[in-house]
């Protein structure tokens, strides 16, 4: 079986973001970028499945401008066998990403598709669900545990839902999106980073894949969230109780 | 009064439907029910629907099987004046919240009803199902809306809530949204029960496309029933971080929550360390809360955690480290050892009424 993993290049999670003065978006020039943390978890899970002998190949896919290849190389250094880069000039909405992925699935025929549950830049949490719908495959979103049964061609997935943990059984092929607790992604070692440089990356454009890129959404403006009024540092528990009771009236 | 309004609405709708091929605005709300009632968060989606436009009849979609579904439908019909119709899909296929049949159901109901908007709440239920339905309908959904500026303009947080993005929807109908329930609070409304409320009708499922249904099966749900208020809707939330040091010590947080009638929350560090189960996590990847009072003990205040609680009305932080970022958002800060502060609070806090 082949596993396809979608990875996204985003502003590093530790960066304190700045909003552009013209309010058109968030500053991404000269900002530290890295692989979306949930995508790292997705890739780690695919590699683990391969290492347990249940998959033969792990293909990492990314979409966006040419510098997204860096993210793909990181994925190859972690252990993905090869990469696919779909060159797109601007940010794609999840529906477009899902449509491109569908075409790639038709070319590559993977038995499992793993994505992160959300990208930490747009916080959408949509792509995995949308690609599953387009393919007519079952979905296991917010996965915190994945067990494959090769004989029966099913995946048992524990999902993190509001009320606790839900267990589903999915027929393969399926789409799985990863939650934080699924695994601890590995670091790329120096020899592997060197090796990754010679691993193949195939390039496509959306036109070559015959996908029409439409957005349906227009960003009007991006603004700072309202700042909270500066608080006060109190000196004792008595003062705290008094403030909560008599000033804030919350207890 | 309410009944007259309802009649007016009904006749207006009828007029519109007969005059125009499509109505100006009409909303389908995907609702969740439990134990014969619709969930409180689902009503937030109705409140959100109300702020889309003035004349906006709301159809509530309930799916499931058995008597509790019909009980919930009857309650839903009289629970909010802007609900004009309750659609009930009764089938074993909907016994569990599996995305595959539910997304197909939304597609089916949308193709029949031609709604201008489809709304769900952005909890794990709505986030799982709505994007799948949107892809079936070939439209781009808008996730986690916190404010509505007209029928097609919405505000949503991006970058873990560090920026607010105003987006205009320019795509085809329906415009699909998941809304953050804490941003659309439900105020108690009295509905004239004599008016009979909304009409209840069964969805004809004979044309439900079976294509991707049956490829997933529900196995089990392991939940923690604590008897405490639900984290998402509690008025007070008491949260503990890594500084609690152990699951045993975390019980102090639970005791304090009990005394205040509060829900218990946790940081990712506390969950990863195994102090509490993951459904208590507050933050970008956990639950988003906005209670009246949020008390954070031993929480440093990483941006991913702040994303889940900074809309709380009053934030109290207790931390040994006076430079902890949590103090920048706290209304009341106390620099001190939580192992001294919590017992003192437990002793001195007034008994809850």
TrEMBL record, chain A:
GO terms for molecular function: electron transfer activity. GO terms for biological process: amino acid catabolic process; fatty acid beta-oxidation using acyl-CoA dehydrogenase. SUPFAM superfamilies: Adenine nucleotide alpha hydrolases-like (SSF52402). InterPro entries: ET-Flavoprotein_bsu_CS, ETF_a/b_N, ETF_b, ETF_beta_N, Rossmann-like_a/b/a_fold. Its main location: mitochondrion. The keyword Mitochondrion applies. PROSITE patterns: ETF_BETA. It holds the Pfam family ETF. Keywords: Electron transport, Mitochondrion, Transport. Residues 23-213 form the Electron transfer flavoprotein alpha/beta-subunit N-terminal domain. GO terms for cellular component: mitochondrial matrix; mitochondrion. Signal peptide: none annotated. It is found in: Mitochondrion matrix. It comes from the Eukaryota. The electron transfer flavoprotein serves as a specific electron acceptor for several dehydrogenases, including five acyl-CoA dehydrogenases, glutaryl-CoA and sarcosine dehydrogenase. It transfers the electrons to the main mitochondrial respiratory chain via ETF-ubiquinone oxidoreductase (ETF dehydrogenase). Belongs to the ETF beta-subunit/FixA family. PANTHER family: ELECTRON TRANSFER FLAVOPROTEIN BETA-SUBUNIT, ELECTRON TRANSFER FLAVOPROTEIN SUBUNIT BETA. Heterodimer of an alpha and a beta subunit. This is Electron transfer flavoprotein subunit beta.
Automatic annotation (TrEMBL), chain B:
PROSITE patterns: ETF_ALPHA (PS00696). FAD binds at residues 242, 267-268, 281-285, 298-305, 319. SUPFAM superfamilies: Adenine nucleotide alpha hydrolases-like (SSF52402), DHS-like NAD/FAD-binding domain (SSF52467). Its cofactor is FAD. It holds the Pfam family ETF_alpha. InterPro entries: DHS-like_NAD/FAD-binding_dom, ETF_a/b_N, ETF_a/FixB, ETF_alpha_N, ETF_asu_C, ETF_asu_C_CS, Rossmann-like_a/b/a_fold. GO terms for biological process: fatty acid beta-oxidation using acyl-CoA dehydrogenase. Residues 27-217 form the Electron transfer flavoprotein alpha/beta-subunit N-terminal domain. The keyword Mitochondrion applies. One of its GO terms (cellular component) is mitochondrion. It is found in: Mitochondrion matrix. Heterodimer of an alpha and a beta subunit. This is Electron transfer flavoprotein subunit alpha. It comes from Gossypium hirsutum (Upland cotton).
